[in-house]
Input
Amino acid sequence: MTNTVSYKVIDGIAIISIDNPPVNVMDLQTRTLLIEAVNEFNADPGAAAAVLLCAGRTFISGADISEFDQLPFRDPWLPEVVQTIEDAGKPIVAAIHGAALGGGLEVAMGCHFRCAAGDARLGMPEVTLGLLPGASGTQRLPRLIGVRRALDMMLTGKPVTARDALEYGLIDCIIDEDLQQGAIGFARRILEHQQAGKRLSRVEMSSSDAGPGVFSEYRRWIEKNAAGFFAPEKIIQCVEAAVELPYHEALEVEAELFLQCLDSDHSRAQRYLFFAERETARVADVPKETPCRDINTVAIIGGGTMGCGIAMNFLQANIPVTMLEVDRSGLDKAMQTIRRNYADRVSKGRLDQARMDRCLELLQGSTEYDDISDADLVIEAVFENMSVKKQVFTRLDRVCKPGAILATNTSTLDINVIAGFTNRPGDVIGLHFFAPANVMPLLEIVRAGETAKDVIATAFKLAKTIRKIGVLVGVCFGFVGNRMFMPYVREAEYMMLEGIAAERIDRVACDWGMAMGPHAVTDLSGQDVFFKINDEWQQKPVDPAYFRICRVLYEQGRYGQKTGAGKYLYEGRKAIADPEVAELARVEAGKLGIQQRQISDDEILKRMLYAMINEGALILEEGIALRPGDIDVIFANGYGLPRYRGGPMFHADLVGPARVYEDICKFRQRYGDRYWTPAPLLQQLAEEGSTFLEWSGQRS
Ligand code: 3H9
Output
């Protein structure tokens, strides 16, 4: 094993360099060697100051997250490393490039000074892992930049730029020249001026540093922005300790609360998603080295809400887009929609005018297919109807240059059939965006039977370019996300027929952490949309109760938010429970012979979640998703499932597949085989006492 920390002296300044690719995490070896290097520096009469820097693409990106599952921690643990640095008898300057995150920023705060390259980013992302900065970060950060800014950084997890860091006092200078040379120069200057720098553990704090009402203000912020998450409240408690207790006592509070976070299911779920999101691009027969096609121009067919949202992704990534519509008025409408969307973002301060102008300069419109013949990638986002898709793909096959990728944004239709409308099925792929397409981070990359490997590799690269998480899925009705979402809504509707109010079902889903309940979601997308999707589905269950309420609402013109009434009544966007819908459900249940009954909140939740999980197990067996983690990434990023739940398959593992199986068998007894036959994989895991994750690990 090569050493990850090196020590050398250049003209009286020690250079302590960390080289632990790919992102310089503080694993055991690095922690041990860093302490040794600091000791060597302390004992070295030939070095008056030291510069701590990193090789590769970034400064230290934090603690090694994979170690968090292997308790107890192995010494030296990170807080000790940070304290050893601070206790050095001579000044140490951190020289930051790339990202200094979490434990990385904590190490930098152990140093007496901090310099950064202009493009550096500094942050405390622990909260996104269900954790808190546990190597003295909750204590040192408020001492360095004040309570408010520290709470902002720790509660949002968002990194700040070098410029902001300088303004906050998080760093002492920005270095525009070569970082090592600049940091050595900086070290010489502090020696010359006999500056000692800050030893943050010795800075005293008191309640006046927080100011009145600050903590309750941030608690209100949590209620609004991070309700349900475990770690944010603990972060506040650590900072309260920072201002109320002596440093070392507050540090003990931090250590205790860090362990509580670490041991929570929330953090387990969030850490799991961290790795799962990085694994999605790993596809056995499409290795990393697979060549990608160049995508310099994109054409979008269809300027509806979806097409416009998709176009914006590419414009924001500086890729020129041609929007194709059938006629001038459709095109004008599409161009206006994009302009309005951008203007909206500018007015909310989320985008500056210059950026909006640049994006719009990259946008062109056309009504002629010949104008897109040179596009490297075409994404079709027209009506969900096979004969319309046929017209589009037949035209594309005629006009597009060889090698162009022909993508469809269909959410339910068979892409093998669509690919069959062309003479180049290898170039055809599904790129399934989620509404609003310019905001939602998920992209289902749908591999059809003949999709070429370089087309798949290009799709993953493209996903990164437009800042989405690409997940590879296979062809089936609804792919992964919508296929699993349908049983969830199916059960939610069926329970309405059994006499449970829509608002109660939604409340149970939201109490579990869903951003919206199933009925509110279908009202948002539209009962018409759900009706039509199911209507087009050739293999839908032959069951008069299936999406019955949706159908009746559709027939009554109650489409949801857009018509002011659906499963709820609407005042603007505000949903109001409608007793007429409960009555409608009762009448329909009577026609279907469905008994009204009491159902506990526990069963309401299980019926919805377990319907999804059972479908997920089928999806895994069929190879439609590669891993349980891929399914969970889809639900965390495209369906509003709270990250602290991990996802449906993670939830199944947490509850235990055996218990999920047992409940599904009980549902089968009551409701029959049609929907509640346990997936063979679920049954297998139940019998083996195993989990989806273990099953997946054995296969890879
Ligand atoms: C912490 O510090 C706690 C302390 O406060 C207290 C302790 C007591 N650990 O993202 P990439 C892997 S918590 C382990 O694709 P990029 C990653 O899985 C930590 N592994 O690169 C991937 O592996 P693979 C707080 C990690 O250039 C590879 O590195 N810090 C870690 O797109 C490349 O990653 C964070 O939360 C890690 N900490 O982005 C920062 N980080 O190739 C987490 C990465 O096998 N990291 N890996 O799939 C990041 O945000 C990004 O990795 C970074 C680079 C922005 C640095």
About this structure: The domain at 614-622+629-700 is CATH 1.10.1040.50 (N-(1-d-carboxylethyl)-l-norvaline Dehydrogenase; domain 2).
